[in-house]
Amino acid sequence: MNLLYAEDERALSEAVCDILTYNKYLVDAVYNGTDALEYARVGEYDGIILDIMMPGMSGIEVLNTLRKEGCKTPVLLLTAKSEIEDRITGLDAGADDYLPKPFAMGELLARIRAMLRRREDFVPDNITCGDLTLERKNSVLSANGVSFTLPKLEFRMMELFIINRGIYISSEDLLTKIWGYDTDAEIGIVWVYISYLRKKLTAMNSNVEIRAKRGVGYTLDVREEKNG
Q1: In the chain, how many H helices and how many E strands?
Q2: Rounded Cα–Cα distance for residues 128 and 60 (Å)
Q3: Burial 172-208 (b: 16+ CB within 10 A, else e)
Q4: What CA–CA distance (Å, rounded) separates 39 from 3?
Q5: Is 166 helix (H, G, I), strand (E, B) or coil?
Q6: Run of H or E residues at 18
Q7: DSSP for 64-96?
Q8: What pairs with residue 77 in β-bridges?
Q9: How far apart, in whole angstroms, are the C-alpha atoms of residue 192 and residue 190?
Q10: Residue 15 neighbours by CB distance under 10 Å
């Protein structure tokens, strides 16, 4: 499961990210509201965790903007404020849950699990294309009895391709969506990861291939079986 975590307290952010990673979540951490909004717009996240008090934009401003743009990703708000009025403001803005600081890590994990269970109504755990199945909970890609546990970036790329099957995605968009809009990575890294996934598809003898269209981008395509 992919999470976006926006928190301007670096020490707290590192501690929470360590716990989330230990519990098998893939986490992108940002430290201000402006970055949170940009990441949320371009990323494919199962849940978003927003601190309310952040530089750039507040968590409420980020949430309001996302909901107005049609984003349905569940959001958990974190804040040092505990007054009823703040909770009402956050929930009215479209938050799915609210957790005041300081919080126990166990409660945070429980709130995240509850938030993601609600998302299961419209996002399946397993997504498919052709004979491929991608298990989103454990990042396993399988076909024809062969499975690979994908590293974080390969998982994100394959997930993006399956969700957008038939749509060509440019190298620049892949770089932004997988590595983040402010990444220092060069465009060549996209081609490297395309190669990694192609080798896995070949090893699984999958009927799915990553097709390239010069000057346009990449997409998943299912090869038709030939009779005789």
Answers
A1: 8, 11
A2: 35
A3: ebbbbbbbbeeeeeeeebbeebbebbeebbeebebbb
A4: 11
A5: coil
A6: helix 10-22
A7: HHHHHTT----EEEEES---HHHHHHHHHTT-S
A8: 50, 98
A9: 5
A10: 13
Helices assigned H by DSSP within 23-151: 33-42, 59-68, 84-92, 105-119
- Residues 175, 185 contacting (CB under 8 angstroms): yes
Question: In sequence order, what are the residues at sequence separation of 6 or more whose Cβ sits closer than 8 angstroms to the Cβ of residue 84?
Answer: none
| H or E stretch covering 193 | helix 188-203
Per-residue pLDDT at 179: 83
Question: Do 193 and 218 touch, CB atoms closer than 8 A?
Answer: no
CA distance 98 to 114: 12
| CA 55 vs CA 4, 130, 188, 209: distances in Å | 17, 45, 33, 43
Domains and CATH numbers, the chain: 2-119 (3.40.50.2300), 126-222 (1.10.10.10)
Determine the pLDDT at residue 228.
Answer: 39
Q: Which residue type, as a one-letter code, is found at position 129?
A: C
pLDDT tens series, the chain, 228 aa: 889 999 999 999 999 999 999 988 889 999 999 999 999 988 888 899 999 989 999 999 999 999 988 888 999 998 876 666 767 777 888 888 888 888 999 999 999 998 888 665 555 678 899 999 999 878 899 999 999 999 989 998 998 899 888 889 999 989 888 887 677 889 999 999 999 999 999 999 999 999 999 989 999 999 875 443
131 and 42 in contact (C-beta within 8 Å)?
no
Residue type for position 73: T
